[in-house]
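Morning F.,

Quick status update on the modeling queue. The single chain you submitted on Monday has been processed. Sequence for confirmation:
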Amino acid sequence: MASTTCVLIGAPVDSGKRRRGCLMGPAAYRTAGLAEALRSLGHAVRDLGDVTPAALRTLEAPDHVHALSETVAWTEALLPVARDACAEGLPIFLGGDHSLSLGTVAGVATYAAAVERPIFLLWLDAHSDIHTPVSSKSGNLHGTPVGYVTGRRGFDAFPSLPAPVPPENVCLFGIRSVDAPEREALATRRFTIHDMRAIDEAGIARPLQSFLDRVTAANGLLHVSLDVDFLDPSIAPAVGTTVPGGLTFREAHLVMEMLHDSGCLTSLDLVELNPFLDERGRTASLMVDLVASALGRRVFDRPTQSFA
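Structure tokens below.
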């Protein structure tokens, strides 16, 4: 990937689940030196500050659904911001919980349709997030973005999708916590799925490279949504949805390095960082290092860090 303009956009979304703290994520990434890391790699950086949600509207929802009006307001605000930012460079959305991807992915897909290029989505997460507001037992809307952007029914309160993401262009990578309604939904759609068992059996490089080759062959735009819980909680504790058995430090960097080598990456979400749960900033620092790997930092250029 040649030098590019990285457009940083804070999305302090904290409505997608009941455990609070993700609204502090954008500040944590900035404090951990994300802009400085990108500039050190030769990229220009524009920080557009934090998005604010649209005006709240009273919306009817099933009793168990948490903060529907707030999450819809964030989606309404983020969709046009994401769409427009793609024309300015490589947008990096600093979350915020994963419900922010309802807006960011929809916006990026809208931009892709406007420039007549296919959109692809690489979902790096412990969860598939294919629920609808109705199917989710928890009612936490951070478990719904894949369902929304691929056009599942049940999102009447949300903005109409100008350009749904075709399920066959979605790769769910590293998932390891999927409930029964999600399994049923995945079984009827043409997602590419590499769960942790498949990764344990086949390794990371081959399945990921196969997906990236598809993006390249189609001249597609690739949006990557990176959830902190994609990583093993032993190296990334600052997340409210920890699931044991995630990627190791080295495996995660390999994913990022392969993204850089492919030249496919065109937009990026960083989600579910809860600084309230972190240990002296170690998770925020790791996420910044992963972004640096995706944008060109080589393994022997990586600085040694100490948390002692």
